[in-house]
């Protein structure tokens, strides 16, 4: 069964599935961050199901619902990979995705391809320091620790061993990725690949690593070839961390909250477009004398001077900006003493500029496929310089 994010469709549901979805909608009282916002009876065994802002696979007691993007020019994997760059690594490359693939299947394909390649090449190993305080005592004696821990007792020893092991941080990331994929229904081919790969990680500890943990990987010349696999694994972990409370979701769910992912993607693209500027993400500011505050998605500064505020809008570009968005941006500009705000929407639509007094509000479209449009970098530079915007 298919839904589009923030869309609605009449679905034929088993009673147990309709009860599950109705309970999910009731539990998620904030519509802006809900997976399912409403389940409305629409005839015998049929229900109008309304989706929220998540993409991915929602597991049901007897089936599943795949929620797809509503923006045809947007490749969700590329958006989700924003912020997954690992330290000491080469720049990310686009992930090739077959157009017919659903999001979860496409991510699974990409992750399993990388893990399979690493297994064939041979998993990286390193020398791991282990201490033994019980018999047998492999390795070399550690008299200093023997004295510190056991006051030199003759019936106790401390030894240190540094065996060559596959239990490295990089391999723990891969095992975590396989653990996330394991309960998901991925189709016969990928289900078989997960089962085939898991035995290769039996000697690797399973840790509940988050996307942030994975991004802190310190790759060396020996492990640099793990970069793509770790970045894609971080995408899976983002789905785990951004999904709703696992306590009432079926185990085969993998969901991604796209408004947050879009914000990270826009900030990353602005960074890349303006290498000579300082881009400050999640910039907080005071908006009243009574202590009210707001947070802009990004503030652009150059030479210590604020140039513009950036706001990532994960909504349709038609009739943008809305009155609420205009009030919001004018407030930001006024409080930051700047004249330019840029709103970025996930569509390759016609750019525009709106003048409100001395303030300029630029509306820019951004897609992952910009064929036929002036590059986003150039359009953003035009907006900041006060020049014309083109499409």
Notes on the structure:
With 391 residues, the protein is of the alpha+beta class. The protein folds into three domains: 2-123 and 168-259, no CATH class; 129-162, no CATH class; 274-385, Trna Endonuclease, Chain: A, domain 1 (3-Layer(aba) Sandwich). It has eleven helices and 18 strands. It has helices at residues 15-27, 76-80, 103-121, 143-150, 169-181, 188-197, 211-215, 227-242, 258-273, 323-336, 376-385; strands at 2-4, 8-12, 36-41, 46-51, 54-60, 63-68, 126-127, 130-132, 140-141, 159-161, 164-165, 254-257, 278-286, 293-302, 305-312, 340-345, 352-356, 359-365. It has a six-stranded mixed sheet, sandwiched between helices. 36% of the residues are buried.
Q: Secondary-structure blueprint of this entry?
A:
Blueprint: E1 2-4, E2 8-12, H1 15-27, E3 36-41, E4 46-51, E5 54-60, E6 63-68, H2 76-80, H3 103-121, E7 126-127, E8 130-132, E9 140-141, H4 143-150, E10 159-161, E11 164-165, H5 169-181, H6 188-197, H7 211-215, H8 227-242, E12 254-257, H9 258-273, E13 278-286, E14 293-302, E15 305-312, H10 323-336, E16 340-345, E17 352-356, E18 359-365, H11 376-385
Parallel strand pairs: 1-6, 15-16, 16-18
Antiparallel strand pairs: 2-4, 3-4, 5-6, 5-12, 7-11, 8-10, 9-10, 13-14, 14-15, 17-18
Helix pairs in contact: 3-5, 3-6, 3-8, 5-8, 9-11
Based on the model shown, name its key terms:
391 residues, 6-stranded mixed beta sheet, 3 domains, alpha+beta, 24% strand, 33% helix, Trna Endonuclease, Chain: A, domain 1, 4-stranded mixed beta sheet, single chain
């Amino acid at each position: 069964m298919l839904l589009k994010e923030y869309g609605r469709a009449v679905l034929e549901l088993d009673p147990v599935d309709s009860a599950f979805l109705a309970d999910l909608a009731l539990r998620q009282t904030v519509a802006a961050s809900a997976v399912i916002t409403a389940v409305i009876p629409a005839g015998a065994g049929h229900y109008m199901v309304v989706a929220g802002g998540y993409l991915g696979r929602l597991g049901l007691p007897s089936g599943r619902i795949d929620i797809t993007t509503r923006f045809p020019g947007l490749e969700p994997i590329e958006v989700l990979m924003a912020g997954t760059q690992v330290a000491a690594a080469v720049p990310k490359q686009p992930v090739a995705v077959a157009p017919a693939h659903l999001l979860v299947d496409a991510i699974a394909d990409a992750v399993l391809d990388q893990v399979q390649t690493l297994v064939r090449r041979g998993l990286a190993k390193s020398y791991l320091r282990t201490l033994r305080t019980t018999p047998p005592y492999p390795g070399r004696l550690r008299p200093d620790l023997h004295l510190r821990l056991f006051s030199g007792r003759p019936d106790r020893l401390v030894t240190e061993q540094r065996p060559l092991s596959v239990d490295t941080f990089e391999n723990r990331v891969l095992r975590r990725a396989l653990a996330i994929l394991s309960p998901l229904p991925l189709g016969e081919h990928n289900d078989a690949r997960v089962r085939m790969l898991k035995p290769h990680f039996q000697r690797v500890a399973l840790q509940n690593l988050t996307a942030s943990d994975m991004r802190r990987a310190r790759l060396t010349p020996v492990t640099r070839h793990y970069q793509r696999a770790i970045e894609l694994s971080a995408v899976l972990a983002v789905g785990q961390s951004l999904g709703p409370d696992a306590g009432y979701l079926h185990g085969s769910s993998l969901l991604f909250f796209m408004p947050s992912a879009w914000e990270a993607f826009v900030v990353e693209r602005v960074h890349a477009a303006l290498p000579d500027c300082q881009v400050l993400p999640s910039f907080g500011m005071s908006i009243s004398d009574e202590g009210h505050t707001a947070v802009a998605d990004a503030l652009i500064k150059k030479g210590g001077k604020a140039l513009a505020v950036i706001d990532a809008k994960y909504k349709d570009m038609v009739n943008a900006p809305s009155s609420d968005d205009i009030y919001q941006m004018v407030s930001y500009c006024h409080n930051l003493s700047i004249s330019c705000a840029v709103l970025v929407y996930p569509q390759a639509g016609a750019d525009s500029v709106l003048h409100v007094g001395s303030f300029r509000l630029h509306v820019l479209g951004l897609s992952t496929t910009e064929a036929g449009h002036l590059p986003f970098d150039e359009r953003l530079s035009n907006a900041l310089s006060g020049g014309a915007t083109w499409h």
